Amino acid sequence: MLAVCALAGCVAEPRAEPRGEPGSMPGPARGRGRPGAAAVNALCEGCHEEVAREWRGSLHRRAYVDRSFAESLAREPDPFCRGCHAPEADPQSPPPPALARLGVGCVSCHVPADVVLAAPREGAGAAPHPVRRDARFATAAACGDCHEFAFPDAPPGQDRMQRTLQEHRLSAQAETSCADCHMPKSGERRDHRFVASRDPATLRRALVIEPRRDEAERGFLVLAPGLVGHAMPTGDLFRRLVVEAEVREGRRTVAEVTHALGRRFEVVGDRRVPVGDDRVGAYGPLPVELELDFGADAVGRAIRWRVFYERVDFVDQHGRTQVAARTLLASGELPPPRAD
């Protein structure tokens, strides 16, 4: 039992059942949940005010109440999903309001068992409560249980539902921790807003785009990983990059080309089976070259191009997509090649 009196010296004694063993790293809910977690979390917020302010504006805090997740969960009300998005609740049923609002809280990462967990830090002073300092907490091990996992009931050998850590190990940033990008240093501590896919500047830094045109009928875009330690995009099954290109005559569009880079699946029974993946950086820091071929329509005309990051809520059995949001990452124009 995690006695908050021992942590904060309070008089009242709300308790939160430990979720894991004493050496545990953070992860999804297991067992019956921790009904007192919201009260414990409030005590964390009371002492760590600046960090708490950042966390309250984060996607971690909104993990369960975010509109896109709520709509996805309504379509597929699976306890498997609730385990990561409301990790302090019992995943077998909808969480009580306090734990739904808590989302991934301070306690979810820093109290996975029965003592406060933190990374080793030089010059760290004495804390008013016991602290277990574990070097793994400064590595991908602290994030992995909720950001890499298999499909529920998947047969052995099937590609994972999310494999961000595998992608990280293959990337040019393999020696950089998740926190270095998603929790950059702010003075002596790390930023707890968990900057990620809702931040356009972060998305744009994650991709390097080299346009080229040396032919009259077509152009090329080479997309390579930028400042990113995993595939672009990573995470949710349906996130993707979309490249739109066109040639115009005045205000009239003469021809259009669209490429979507993401993961592809077939539905077998009630299960999604991965069948392809052409995301940038999915298998290491390799570029993806896209051909923008318009045939004779491009001769003498400029090719305009745009690259978007799309968060797709849902793909139905006919391949139709429901896009939640799209962010413009880059755009440009390839003029026709000069005649020699």
Your description of this structure?
The protein is an alpha+beta fold. Helix content is 21%, strand content 29%. It has two domains: 2-138, no CATH class; 200-334, Immunoglobulin-like (Sandwich), CATH 2.60.40. The protein has helices spanning 4-8, 37-47, 49-56, 67-75, 79-85, 97-102, 106-110, 144-147, 164-170, 178-182, 200-205, and strands at 2-3, 15-16, 116-118, 131-133, 148-149, 162-163, 185-186, 189-190, 207-212, 218-225, 240-249, 252-261, 263-268, 271-277, 288-293, 303-315, 321-334. The strands form seven sheets. It has a four-stranded antiparallel beta sheet.
What is this structure, in a nutshell?
By secondary structure, the chain is of the alpha+beta class. The chain contains 11 helices and 17 strands. The chain is elongated, with a radius of gyration of 23 Å.
